[in-house]
Structure formats: C-alpha cells, structure tokens
Amino acid sequence: KLFKKAVENVKPLLEVKTRRVGGANYQVPVEVNADRRTSLAIRWIITYSRGRSEKGMIDKLTNELLDAANNRGAAIKKKEDVHRMAEANKAFAHYRW
C-alpha cells in the first residue's frame, strides 16, 4: 500500500522531449503514457535511493519510499523539476508530433 502511494506520488504527467525545428532545438512538453509513468517513477525512486546517506540499500530504499509517500524527498523533487520544465516550455507544445 505504501509502495503504491509512493509510486503514485512520483509519477510524472508530462515530460519534455527535444525536437529539432529549422536548426533550433526545442524542449517540447509531451504527455507521458501510463506504463512509462510507472517505470519512470520506480526508476527515480531507486536512483535517488542510491544517493542517500543511510547505510545499506534496504534503509535507503525504505526511507526514499517513505519520503515519496509523504510527498517529499529527491524523487518528488525530480518530478516537480520535470513538470517545471514542461510548464516553462509549453509555448512549444504545438511542435508535438
């Protein structure tokens, strides 16, 4: 239950993909499909668990999952950063393919 809540909180709705248009590269915001949302969330939780200072991967992963379930921690920050990038580049949304 806690794991599901943590993953649900970390799932990104949008991400940016680089698209080349007439010699310029644009960060184009695109929606993330359901499977990719879940895999990104789990990948981020594992990645940021590794960077934590606790001893042993069990403690690191446990604490990152607890943080994610409570809407804090590095994985949540990553999701917010990705959403911020998408928001900042929404002017280029018409370049979606």
Helices, strands, pairings?
Elements: H1 2-10, E1 14-21, E2 24-31, H2 34-50, H3 57-69, H4 74-88
Antiparallel strand pairs: 1-2
Model description:
This protein has one domain: Ribosomal protein S7/S5 (Ribosomal Protein S7, Orthogonal Bundle), CATH 1.10.455.10. Helix 1 packs across helix 2 (34-50). The radius of gyration is 15 Å and the shape is elongated. The mean pLDDT is 91. The chain is α+β, with helices and mostly antiparallel strands and 97 residues long. It has a two-stranded antiparallel ribbon with strand order 1-2. 56% of the residues lie in helices and 16% in strands.
Keywords:
alpha+beta; elongated; Ribosomal Protein S7; 97 residues
The CATH architecture classification is Orthogonal Bundle
Average pLDDT, rounded to a whole number, is 91
Kindly report the oligomeric state of this protein: single chain
Query: Given the helix and strand composition, which structural class is it?
Result: alpha+beta
Span of the ends, CA to CA:
37 Å
Low-confidence spans: none
Number of helices: 4
**At the first level of CATH, what is the class?**
Mainly Alpha
CATH superfamily membership: Ribosomal protein S7/S5
**Quick one: biggest sheet?**
2 strands, antiparallel
Give the C-alpha Rg: 15 Å
Q: Count the beta strands.
A: 2
Global shape:
elongated
> How much of the residues is beta strand, in percent?
15-25%
**Largest beta sheet: what is the strand line-up?**
1-2
CATH topology: Ribosomal Protein S7
In the residues, how many domains can be counted?
Answer: 1
Helix share bin: 55-70%
SSE pattern: HEEHHH
